[in-house]
Structure formats: structure tokens, C-alpha cells
């Protein structure tokens, strides 16, 4: 194929076809061609290639380059050839179902979608059915009714809560269609092959940040367009053989549960509500007593204290994927009895966090567990035992800097595949239902009334949704669903430098 010269003073660049967004014949009436030698062309022809340009900090944006030539046939041949190359990109979505939460974050979801995302989808010839939610659970309910097979993916515009809603709709629908009882905590769940794309427009946007590396609507739209795919572990939460919720990011009791509960009353403050409630909860310094049991994740190679983080093409997640495939071959969807040992820990805790991913977000760029993996079939259990306010502050500050947040005597971290928690209050009530006196201690610790140990239960923060249950059972389901994402790319700065250094387009 002959080469076309690249016009303008732009540096030449190399773009993999997988990152070309669209190719269009250029409207010469709109495009100025009064620079360089093209000015002298009697009747120029041109086409424009739109492609992904990688900037710093994992940010992507849509750039374009226009090629001019005098030969109309040659120009058309190039357009045709490039369009055929794009047709070969089979992982790209053609039809998407979009849910927008107009009240998430700073209430900008609709504007963000219309101004930043819809034009890119249209450029990439993606058709969309857009649904603006009118109430909580609207998207979830709708997902049980729509003809889901019509779509190549579902996009949610909002925060982690909105993502959680869409995920519950899709996973729930999948289990219902396959006759799986979600109330059975041991039921092997059916994988959800319809990918979800997240356009961040919420308050924390931790799921987007932890899977793409930045909370930026344009970057996320481009990940959807190029058809990226990132498998994701999902944990199910049950109480007494009753299904409560699924979680992919943070399941937190104590500190993060209390922040969430308080912040819900301050929704009008927007994302700032978390700073306000965070400060208030920090000052209240409540700790909670209970029993934790967990099964360590022995199948995975990594550890929560690893220095390396989960990155695009992570070998630890790939190894778990292989194990999963082998297990499926061996047992199909049959449940395999799990006899592995349970470890039990009793104590007083300021925070009990179970995280399926790092939980990195703009507030905490490394996240709650920097070495957690997106798709290894395990979660990191972080226990912050009762300590002084000062020590707890030191711990929190380490969420925002490079220091090791697990290097404290009052913090323990375990990689687990299942986990259970029962609050002391519930244990007492269950073991001694007749001892009515015990129930009247109210908010105070019986051992030391002056300490901050709260006899009342905390609530669970389940991906930003409150969950009131003082006893739960959690199980990690390896790679239960997929996102339009590629994980966090290594050496992003290096990649963007290379992109502009290499010399040829195609
Ligand atoms: C002295 C400085 C202390 C700073 C500590 C900062 C710690 C931040 C950790 C953030 C962890 C985030 C885990 C993600 C949780 C989200 O799923 C949840 C809901 O998100 P969304 O639906 O988008 O609103 N967000 C939260 O629970 C907020 C936690 C904020 C804590 C300050
Ligand atoms: N139209 C709506 N009105 C009220 N709540 C909604 C609506 N659509 C979705 N929700 C709910 O709002 C909650 C928070 O949404 P989210 O997009 O995560 O915003 P934020 O990040 O600010 O919490 C979710 O639980 C979701 O179910
Ligand atoms: Ca994981």
C-alpha cells in the first residue's frame, strides 16, 4: 500500500489499529487546508483518522489527524482499507444500553454524558438506548425486563452506587434466567458476559478509578469504544441463607460504614458530604466488638503486602482465570465442597474492611489495599483494631501517601476467599436471649464505660450502599463479571512518549 504524507507540522505518530476510533472522509468545506503545500492543490481530497491519544496519569483523549492527497481514488482506497480494519475489531460494542443517574455526585451525569460521551459514541458509530433514572433501583428493575441480548454492553453514568445497581440488575437477571437461587450462599453463580462500562459521575468513583487508573468520562468512553475487557471478582453477601448484596469494591464496617450512614443525611452537600462525615466519624472514634472468621485464599500467588500492584494483563489474575477454567471443566456448575480451614479472630475494631480491589480513588490514589487484585478470586480483609485517635489518624494519612498503611501493630491484613462476621451484640443476644438486662446497656461498653467501644452495631458500607446486618457471610466469586476497561496500564508516561516517538502511521 502506498504511503500518504501526513500534513501539518505535527510530529508523525504510531497508532495501533485497536486504538483507532473512527475514519471519516473530511468535509473540505469545514476543514481549512491553507497551510503547507496543500494550499497549492487544485482539488484536494482528505480523510481524518480519529484515535486514542494517551496522556499522563492514565488519561486518554480523542485526537485526530487529517491526510490530504490529490488522487480521489487513492483517498477512497485508504478510507475503505481503514474501515475494513476497524470492522475486524470484533470486541467493540455496536449497541449499548445507557443508564444515567441525574442525581449522582455533583448532579452532572446528564450533562457529562451528552457533552462528553455521546459525541464520541456517535463518532464511533455506536448506537445507544439511553435511560435516565427517575428513582433508586430504576435501572436495576429495568434490567430484569429489557431484551438484554440486543445489547453488547451496559453503560452506567454515575458513582459506585449506580454501578452497584446496574451490576445487581445484570447478575440478578443472569441467575434468574439460569434458575440459580441467589439465596443459597454456596450456589455457583453464572458468569455475566455482558460488559459494563462506567462513566464516572459520582462522588467517589472508586470502581472506575481502580479499573482504569483515573476518573475521567472521556477516558472511560474511549475504553468502552475500543472494546476493552477486564474481568472482575464479585463477592456475595448473605445473612441466614438470605441474599443481601453483591460487592466489588469496599465492604466496610465501623469507620466506613459510619461515614456512609451519616453522609446519606447530607446528600445535598454532594461529594463534600464524605469529608464532613469523615471528619465527624473520625472524632467520634467508635470501635465495635465482634467475631471474624475467614478462609485464607491459598489458590492465589499474591499477598496483600506485595510491592507490585495489579496491572493490565496481570499474571496473578490470569493464573486465577486458568484455575477457574480447569475447575469448570472438572465440575461444571456443580458446587465443590470446600473443606478448607477457617481462622477465627475476636476483638474490638475501628474498621473492618473487605476489599475486592485496591479501592483507589482521587482521595486515596493507592487505595485501601494497594496490592489487591481485580480478578484473582480473592479479597483483602483489613482489620484495624482499637487504637488511639492519633494512631488511627496516622493510619488514615497513609492512604494518601506512599507509606505502607499495613505497617502498624494495630492493623492486620489477610487475603481471603470467604469471610464471616458476627457482632458481639448479636452473639450476646443469641447466646443469652433471656438475659434482658444485657440489652439495656445501650450505647456503652460494659467493661469500660469511658472507652469508645460501641455496644450498638455499626452498618456495612457495601460499595456505597448501607447494609444493616450484624451478621454476614461473604464469598468471593472469581471473575463473575466483566467491565469495559483494561486494568491500570503500566508506565503510562512511557507509553505516551513512545506513541509520539515512533514514526509511522500504519
Ligand atoms: C487525614 C486524611 C484522611 C484521608 C483518608 C482518605 C481515605 C479514603 C479512602 C477511600 C476509600 C474509598 C472506598 C470506596 C467507597 C465507595 O464505594 C463509596 C461510594 O462511592 P460513591 O457511590 O461514588 O459515592 N464511597 C465511600 O464510602 C466514601 C468514603 C469516603 C471516605 C472519606
Ligand atoms: N433518579 C434517581 N433518584 C434517586 N436516586 C437514584 C436515582 N438513580 C439512581 N439512584 C441511586 O442513587 C444512589 C447513589 O448514586 P451514585 O450514582 O452512586 O452517586 P454518588 O456517587 O453521589 O453516591 C444509588 O444508590 C442509586 O441507586
Ligand atoms: Ca480480587
TrEMBL record:
<dbReference type="InterPro" id="IPR045363">
    <property type="entry name" value="CERK_C"/>
</dbReference>
<feature type="domain" description="DAGKc">
    <location>
        <begin position="91"/>
        <end position="241"/>
    </location>
</feature>
<dbReference type="Pfam" id="PF00781">
    <property type="entry name" value="DAGK_cat"/>
</dbReference>
<protein>
    <submittedName>
        <fullName>Ceramide kinase</fullName>
    </submittedName>
</protein>
<dbReference type="InterPro" id="IPR016064">
    <property type="entry name" value="NAD/diacylglycerol_kinase_sf"/>
</dbReference>
<dbReference type="InterPro" id="IPR001206">
    <property type="entry name" value="Diacylglycerol_kinase_cat_dom"/>
</dbReference>
<dbReference type="InterPro" id="IPR057465">
    <property type="entry name" value="CERK_PH"/>
</dbReference>
<dbReference type="GO" id="GO:0006672">
    <property type="term" value="P:ceramide metabolic process"/>
</dbReference>
<dbReference type="Pfam" id="PF25382">
    <property type="entry name" value="PH_CERK"/>
</dbReference>
<dbReference type="GO" id="GO:0001729">
    <property type="term" value="F:ceramide kinase activity"/>
</dbReference>
<dbReference type="Pfam" id="PF19280">
    <property type="entry name" value="CERK_C"/>
</dbReference>
<dbReference type="GO" id="GO:0016020">
    <property type="term" value="C:membrane"/>
</dbReference>
<dbReference type="InterPro" id="IPR017438">
    <property type="entry name" value="ATP-NAD_kinase_N"/>
</dbReference>
<dbReference type="InterPro" id="IPR050187">
    <property type="entry name" value="Lipid_Phosphate_FormReg"/>
</dbReference>
